[in-house]
Specification:
Keywords: Hydrolase, Membrane, Transmembrane, Transmembrane helix. 40% of the residues lie in helices and 15% in strands. The chain has 329 residues and is an alpha/beta fold. The longest helix is centred in the first third of the chain and has 39 residues.
Length: 329
């Protein structure tokens, strides 16, 4: 898989994947149907009690103070020439230091990396991005604009727009999927890869279609202010359209023709993740053709970097330092 355009498999394999995807989504919609029935009953109860309040969409007008905390960094914007999209990111650390690029998951935005922005700015230019369709980044209206090829190209273009040709790339959840694919497509741009609670894409494709038990996500330890930050961002009109479109194109250009990851890789996993089963983390190691470290935290959930930030940061520092030492030797 030298470049994103080469990622798409032959027609026969795509038909097979499409059939399996259809079965998967049938299970998803069945599960959602049960949830919808429960939600419908609650809605009827709410309508009966407070009809005026039930259908009012409350948009939070003012962001909570934590979103403008100067200790997290500076809010910046960059417009990509090819796509014309404007991306929002928060940057901490001096310009010219090695770049650490952070890719959030669903349904999140740059703020999910708040603990890492503070931690790593001493030695890195840390950039936490709002992915296409999220937060203050532009959200194209059509689902075709969210295919994996487009998301991979975004990261390449942003890296170049920031004035870098390589970075330490870190991704969580859906951002982890994108991080794996960038590392496969553009290995020269990724010095070290760190992924939080997302397996290699080939493992994901094969495993998740066979295990519908992963439809329920686990919880996360957030403060009241953190929750308000998420509510503020996702209460804005159309704020969920882009994130949902990411998942509507989840099987585009999968399975992969090329699988290997050739840079040092750290995979961190919260064992209490009810969405991503830990077996996928173990299988992932066969695709990394370099130093690979897997650390499973028994008390952590899917939202690992927010759940256990001190432990996660320490593990990342250890990985980064040991790789520097390994190169010197």
């Amino acid at each position: 898989m030298a470049r994103p355009g080469a990622a798409c498999p032959p027609p026969a394999r795509r038909v097979m994947v499409a059939a399996r995807a259809l079965l998967f989504w049938a299970l998803v919609y069945s599960y959602c149907g049960v949830c919808a029935c429960i939600a419908g009953l609650r809605l009827l109860w709410s309508i009966g009690r407070r009809p005026g309040e039930t259908f009012r969409w409350v948009v939070r007008e003012n962001p909570p103070a934590c979103l403008n905390d100067p200790s997290l960094g500076t809010h910046c914007y960059v417009r990509i020439k090819d796509s014309g999209l404007r991306f929002h990111y928060v940057a901490a650390g001096e310009r010219g230091k090695p770049l650490m690029l952070l890719l959030h998951g669903f349904p999140e935005f740059w703020y999910s990396w708040r603990h890492q922005l503070r931690e790593f700015k001493s030695e890195y230019r840390v950039v936490a991005l709002d992915l296409r369709g999220y937060g203050e980044t532009d959200a194209p209206p059509h689902k075709e604009n969210y295919k994996l090829d487009c998301l991979i190209a975004d990261i390449k273009d942003i890296l170049e727009s920031l004035g870098y040709n390589k970075c330490v790339l870190i991704g969580h959840d859906w951002g982890g999927m994108i991080a794996w694919l960038v590392a496969i497509c553009y290995p020269e741009m990724v010095t070290k890869l760190i992924v939080v609670n997302f397996p290699h894409p080939s493992v994901f494709t094969e495993y998740i279609l066979r295990h519908p038990s992963q439809l329920i996500k686990s919880g996360c330890r957030l403060t009241a202010e953190d929750i308000e930050a998420y509510l503020y961002v996702f209460s804005q009109p159309g704020a969920l359209t882009g994130p949902i479109n990411h998942y509507r194109t989840i099987f585009s250009c999968l399975p992969l023709q090329h699988h290997e990851v050739i840079m040092p890789t750290l995979l961190l996993w919260g064992e209490r993740d009810a969405f991503m089963e830990v077996e996928m983390a173990e299988i992932t190691r066969i695709y990394v053709k370099n130093h690979f470290r897997l650390t499973i935290l028994s008390e952590a959930s899917h939202w690992l970097q927010q759940d256990q930030p001190d432990i996660v940061n320490k593990l990342i520092w250890t990985f980064l330092k040991e790789e520097t030492k390994r190169k010197r030797e």
